[in-house]
Amino acid sequence: MAIDFDLIKEIKSRADIVDVISSYLPSVQKKGRNFVAICPFHDDHDPSMQINKEKQIFNCFVCHSSGDVFSFVQKYDKCTFEEAVRKVCEIINFDDPRLHKKTYVRPVDQNLVPIYNCINELQKLYVYGLTTDEGKVARDYLDNRKINDEQRAKFSLGYAINDGKMTIEYLKQKGFSLKNIEDTGIALAQTSGMADHNSGRLIFPIKDQNGQVVGFSARRLNDNNDEAKYVNSPETKIFTKGNILYNYNLAKQTAKHDGFIYVVEGFMDVFAFDTIGITSVVALMSTKLTKQHIELLRRLGVEIRLCLDGDKPGQEAMMKLMSQLDEANLPYRLVSVPGEIRDPDEILKQDGEEKLKSFVTTLVDPFNFAINYYQNISHLGSVDDRKKVVAHFAPTISNMKSKLEQDDYIFKLSEVTGFSSGAIKEYIRDYVKSSKGSSEDSGRSFEEYRKEIDNEIPKEMRRLANAEKLMLGQMIVSKEAVDYFNQNIKYFIIEDYRILSNFINEFVSANGDIDPSLLVSFISESEVPNKDEIVSLLTTFSFEKDKVFNPQIIRDCKSAIVEERDRISSRSQLRQALEGKTPRDKARLAGDYIAYTNKNKNKAK
Predict the structure, then answer these.
(1) By three-state DSSP, how is residue 137 classified?
(2) 307's torsion region: left (phi>0), alpha (psi -120 to 50) or beta?
(3) Is 58 helix (H, G, I), strand (E, B) or coil?
(4) Which of 38, 50, 106, 357 is the least buried, fewest Cβ under 10 Å from its Cβ?
(5) How far is CA 224 from the centre of its chain?
(6) Burial of residue 380, with CB atoms counted within 10 A of its CB: 0-12 exposed, 13-18 middle, 19 or more buried
(7) DSSP-derived secondary structure for 510-525
């Protein structure tokens, strides 16, 4: 941990969460045993944030922002946990020598340290280069593109001086070897020696998800068409293009609050979005999404909004990305204004901020985007192509519960493909029938048994989830409940409950007892990806009616949890047994399972 946990305890003993939040929000009012305020983390009109002075936690029951005094400051000021701790200390006028110790830095491969040091020094040189007389050509370009001083600093823009050899000499004077310099990816071997291949260009530093510079994209500033418009860093020991989304390090700080992340094509589009106040935006390093990109987006847990260029290549790229996002099961919509082929930067430059705001907030679902694509961009030719489109959308339409919505989609699909609405309806009916399958058994089919089995799952999972939730509620108020859990239950099935129970165990082992407010800090300093959700879960439990330890509750929880785990296990065994069996054997095995579980249910009664 960057800050000693004993110091965290001491600060919390001095910092009143109501006072700290009141220093940020004028709307804090007492209501019953708690305090309430207009939540700053969503568009709130009625006070939906509750603050518990006794437990020193807060929770918004609309947007689920929650935590302790440090969490509030961290979310409000969009800063790190360590910075939030220091800000709280400033507010309460508290100081301690331990606050001034060097912040802990996650260890990296020591072989990479010289490369990181070298590229950081190079980045400083580029930033300085933008301020020089020679750098005026880059400043003029940025002025023309309406990129102001604040944005230049925010995105760490720079300029590489024309004398590329001087850049190499500068780094050598700073103590870096030619090997270090080559490893940054900027060295260009010439007959007269080594030079910086970015020389004379505007520099866009490329940063990883933690904000560390790992490479550069350098734009040409002259009219020499023999030179490439952009020179990008090659892949190096510290830079892999497939791992990087431009601006992710900044966008991740606001995306969860905004509830969305835009994905655009280029750096200039990112700047255009920033100009109109949208900071939750990343740019692809090409028009491809890698598995690593998808995991970075998944980690944010928000809606993805695709906004690539409106020309044919850009729209084709969007269609490809849709398939990847569908496969990854990520929620997304697409920016789509039929007939608009300009990119966001061009719209901003030519028509202004309001026009761009209107454009980027015109969002459609995947079906309507694809329909527009086939209507206006990639007209369908052969019968086979049109049949493939109907087949592609059949699962989507067949799963719609609203008949009116289903008819609307079928009508649009009919317009695009040229097939009649009646023919498409018939195709979808056949699709539904074929997907259900059939059985050779003259009695009940396997599908009927499967439905009966699957219909039980939500009920059983609800019972299991309720029992695990009750048990967690007891663990939050009693070490005795924690001990009972470790001896008799040992683990939870529901993932978030399991993660929270692990944190409770770690906390009790280190501190001897339970304190929800301190537990929030304990979780906040961890590296678990979904810690915000875990903190929200903890504070929601803590805001429920005051709980007291009840031995009977934990015994009942244990019985329910063990019983439901056994059922889940037997159902899993059944599914394994069904693989590769004929429909008749499937129906027989499923029937045996239903009879067995019904028999056990009757015994339990």
Answers:
(1) helix
(2) beta
(3) strand
(4) 106
(5) 41
(6) middle
(7) HHSS--HHHHHHHHHT
Please write the tens of the pLDDT for every residue from 536-564: 888 888 877 556 788 899 999 999 888 88
Pair 232, 215: CB distance under 8 Å: yes
Reading the block at residue 305, the tokens are 């909004």
**Could you tell me the strand order of the sheet in which 66-67 lies?**
29-31, 34-37, 49-52, 57-60, 66-67
The one-letter amino acid code at 167 reads: T
Q: φ and ψ at 578, to 5 degrees?
A: -75, -20
In angstroms, the Cα distances linking 223 to 195, 220, 232 are: 22, 8, 19
pLDDT per residue over 263-279, tens digit each? 999 899 999 999 999 99
Per-residue buried b or exposed e for 44-80, using 16+ beta carbons within 10 Å of the residue's own CB: beebbbbbbeebbbbbbeebbbbbbbbbbbbbbeeee
Q: How many CA atoms lie within 13 A of 237 on its CB side?
A: 16
Which residue, among 129, 158, 142, 78, has the nearest Cα to 275 in the 3D structure?
142
d(CA 368, CA 378): 14
CA 558 to chain centre: 34
CB 262 within 8 A of CB 250: no
- The tokens describing 314, both together, are 């850009």
pLDDT digits (tens, 9 = 90+) for 473-532: 899 888 999 999 999 998 888 878 888 888 898 888 888 888 888 899 888 877 666 788
Angle of CA points 104, 110, 111, to nearest 5°:
150
User: What six digits make up the tokens of 598?
Assistant: 């019904």
What are the tokens at 189? 């071997």
Residue ranges in 478-582 assigned as alpha helix (H): 479-488, 495-511, 516-524, 531-543, 551-578
Average pLDDT over all residues of the chain: 83
Q: Which residues are CB-neighbours of 248 under 8 A, at least 6 positions away?
A: 209, 282, 296
Question: Measuring CA to CA, how many Å separate 563 from each of 460, 495, 525, 557?
Answer: 10, 18, 36, 10
Distance CA 170, CA 156 (A): 20
Share of the chain above pLDDT 70, in %: 85
Whether the Cβ atoms of residue 51 and residue 29 lie closer than 8 Å to each other:
no
**Confidence (pTM):** 0.57
Torsion sign (Cα): 512, 517, 523, 529: positive
Cβ(345)–Cβ(272) under 8 Å?
yes
Query: Could you tell me the two tokens for 147?
Result: 């990129």
Helices 353-360 and 267-275 cross at an angle (nearest 10°) of 110
Cβ atoms within 10 Å of 413's Cβ, excluding its own: 26
Confidence at residue 440, expressed as pLDDT on a 0 to 100 scale: 38
Residue type present at position 31: K
